[in-house]
Design goal:
Length: about 230
């Protein structure tokens, strides 16, 4: 986004001259624009984003679009690592679905409840979900940055987003492994598991889903990839 566009958004968000001065000062100090104005655009929707909460990325729109292709009315959807609830909001806007969103960060859960209302759970991946529930579609926008690579990320992410939303462990795939391990228990027959990784991690992510009995394909988008697994 160009500086002129950012300036216009701040002007529109500020209610008083004093608030405008404060917003400009915070942006100059390095605070992400989305945390300043309180929202991010994602797939044409305005998603509320509270301070410290992971900001939905434009590249993740590819994950949402792939999920939309596999969505039907009354589909049961798990949104794991939901963050602000951006992906779930897109899916719910398209169809009447049963949505169960989960995040381990209390700030993210509070924010997702603003965007999604009911059906947002605080906890680690599948742990807080109702026992015996089966998903037709699991969307997992989970952290996949290798731990050592976090220090190389832009300061806006590294300093202003919760590390738990970024850190995927030594190779970036620790959380994915746990999602894949739980998939056979939580996916309905012919259900789908979709997750986002970097292009470099796509092959390893594919192998991990395959190891847990899913039929897998990979859709590449710029520097990221959407890994799509289907249960038998």
């Amino acid at each position: 986004m160009f500086a002129e566009d950012e300036a216009q958004l701040i002007l529109e968000a500020a209610r008083t001259p004093a608030e405008l001065d404060d917003m400009v000062a915070r942006r100059v100090s390095g605070l992400p624009l989305e945390h300043i104005v309180g929202w991010a655009e994602f797939c044409g929707l305005r998603i509320a984003v509270d301070p410290g909460v992971f900001i939905p990325r434009r590249r993740t729109e590819a994950l949402a679009r792939e999920a939309l292709k596999r969505l039907r009315p009354n589909t049961t959807v798990f949104d794991l690592g939901c963050g602000s609830g951006a992906v779930g909001a897109v899916l719910r806007a398209a169809h009447a679905i049963q949505l169960f969103a989960v995040d381990i960060d209390p700030a993210a859960v509070a924010c997702a409840r603003r965007n999604l209302g009911d059906g947002v759970y605080l906890g680690d991946l599948y742990d807080p979900l109702p026992k015996g529930l089966k998903a037709d579609l699991i969307v997992a926008n989970i952290p996949y940055v290798p731990t050592e690579a976090i220090e190389l990320m832009p300061a806006e992410a590294r300093l202003h987003e919760n590390r738990v939303a970024l850190d995927g462990g030594p190779d970036g795939l620790d959380v994915l492994r746990r999602v894949a391990e739980g998939a056979p228990r939580w996916l309905a027959p012919q259900g789908f598991l979709l997750t986002e990784t970097s292009r470099d991690q796509a092959c390893a992510a594919r192998d991990e889903l395959t190891r847990h009995g899913l039929t897998v394909k990979v859709s590449h988008r710029d520097g990221s990839a959407v890994v799509i697994g289907q249960s038998l």
